[in-house]
Amino acid sequence: MSFLTEAPALPARQEAILARLHELPPFSPVLNQLLASLGDESFSYRQLGRLIEQDTVLTGNVLRLVNSAAYARRAEVMAISNAISILGLNKLRNLVLTLSVANMWRRINTPSGWSLERFNAHSLATAILCDGIAQRKEVAFPEGAFLAGLLHDLGKLLIVMASPADHLDIAAYAQQQGCSILEAELYILETDHACLSAEALSRWNLPLALQQAVRDHHTPVAGELSEFVAVANSCAVRLGYGIAEPGEPQDCLPLLDEIGLDGEAVLADFAVDFEAAKALR
């Protein structure tokens, strides 16, 4: 099964970029089923356990995670059913999404000068922070928060895959004009990475709420998932997990305080989950 579908034609430049979706490895059966389960309230612990156990590598990674120092278990956990009861359905599903998507990225070629490692770290940090925000604030489709964060910059990866020269031109134009990367993308490509990300999710038949959150994460709507992605994205960059070479870490507590959250609690949970998941990638 593939989530990739035909879509109405876009301008040639944009179609050329989105055509690179076909070069990504196909979704694994586990990833296909997980994506189909988003928003399905009947999806159970038992179903997730059976899904994980179909993949021996995935099973090993889940057990490594739950037994890692990050979660400080006193006794070794040997069964997936126990792992799920300890970490919970949401966290385990997010872990499997992370591992499945990271495995796709690992099998593609990117040009020199582009750090897939930083891209992965930024995507993961944004996903965990976005999910942490969604757990603390009401929002439509909270179960999609992690995936929205994980895939919000997919368009940047597609641009690099399609045309490394355009990627360099975008960076040079932004520096010369003193404008944002988004503005430079619009000038060079007549579109931007957020729109490309959303279009990719559309072609994968992912929920409309995810598409909108990704498309609007640079022009977010207060109280909607796009705002959570925007805040998580900015926090990830301030913490030193940006796609570009990191500068000095900055305080991101004001960003979390501004939307009415206990920023210290969000960051404490993030630190545990990020370090645990990063060690498995």
List descriptors.
281 residues, mainly alpha, Hypothetical protein af1432, 16 helices
Describe this structure in words.
It is built from 16 helices and no strands. The model has no long low-confidence stretch (mean pLDDT 88). Helix 3 (45-53) crosses helix 5 and helix 7 (116-134) runs antiparallel to helix 8. The protein is mostly helical and 281 residues long.
Instruction: Report the CATH architecture of the largest domain.
Output: Orthogonal Bundle
Could you tell me how far the N terminus lies from the C terminus, measured between alpha carbons in angstroms? 25 Å
How many β strands by DSSP? 0
Report low-confidence residues grouped into runs of 5 or more.
none
Q: What's the overall average pLDDT, rounded?
A: 88
Secondary-structure element order, as H and E? HHHHHHHHHHHHHHHH
Count of separate structural domains: 2
Largest sheet: none
Sheet/helix structural class: mainly alpha
Shape: globular
- The residue fraction in helices comes out at 55-70%
**Strand percentage, roughly?**
under 5%
Cα-based radius of gyration, to the nearest Å:
18 Å
Q: Give me the number of helical elements.
A: 16
- For the record, what is the CATH homologous superfamily label of the largest domain? Hypothetical protein af1432
| CATH third-level topology of the largest domain | Hypothetical protein af1432
Name of the level-1 CATH class of the largest domain: Mainly Alpha
